[in-house]
Amino acid sequence: MKIKIMFFCLSSLFSVTTLAETARGTFEFANATWHSFDKFNGPLVAENGQTSQMEVIGGFHRGAAFAFNSTNSLVPDNTEFANEAIIYVQRVGDSVTLKGRYRYIDNDGDQFHGLIRRNQGTIKAAGASGNGISVISGGTGKYKGIRGKCPYDVFYKPQGYMVVPAKCSWLLKR
């Protein structure tokens, strides 16, 4: 009987500890970033009587963001972030594939980072747009152990920057 009670107490303690070490939430982002890209043209390719040329575009984004509509105090409303991303884009005809890595850095110097993926839309020029997903793959400081996903839209503006609204859902395990 004493062993059963001890086992019950230990398993209850483990369950409480596990719950205390897991947090989850959502927040929305308002991003404004500026980009610097270089373009390389690939060879002309003939396929089915049509000629196309692959473009490879790469560069970086830098900007600022703030969080709002947060459901957890890990990322309070109006948290400000600096953001940076390295982007690689392939375009053949109208088909766009964008991949990259990013990081968001808060005022405490803590950061979360991840991967960007987009297979739709256009890039760079004013009026260009599209949507994709970013995957939060980790972080430092208070964001250590964070994972999540952020579907996003992107809208390129004539002034040379882009607006990127996103909604993130995340899970933090320590």
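Next protein, fold it too.
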Amino acid sequence: MSHVLALVDNLFFQARIQAVAKQIGVEVRIAATADDLVTEALANPPALVIVDLNAKSGGLDAVRRLRSSESPALIIGYLAHVQTELAGEAAEAGCSQVMPQGKFTQELPMILARARGKYEPKTP
């Protein structure tokens, strides 16, 4: 089964992503570090990667490493809306989409619902 892989430091935000994913019927795996994210993505390619570009373990570095490995996964990075320079760096590094955290939070159900098409149906 395909899945979503996420690099998110904030425990509250991890719980929010997991709760929305559960409602939609999508499996989300949270990587503890950028190294874990890259290792997991290469060993078990996800349909979607979500990256907190401010992750202490190096969100931007994780994006670069995934793209250098030619990972086909869609990568969505989020950050504070005032971080325009980081947004540009993330786009150059290979993020498929970069968005402010507020917009990401607002669109999370839609993002995961779109990804659901790449998943096997949830069984009761």
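About the second fold: Residues 45 and 116 are 15 Å apart (CA to CA).
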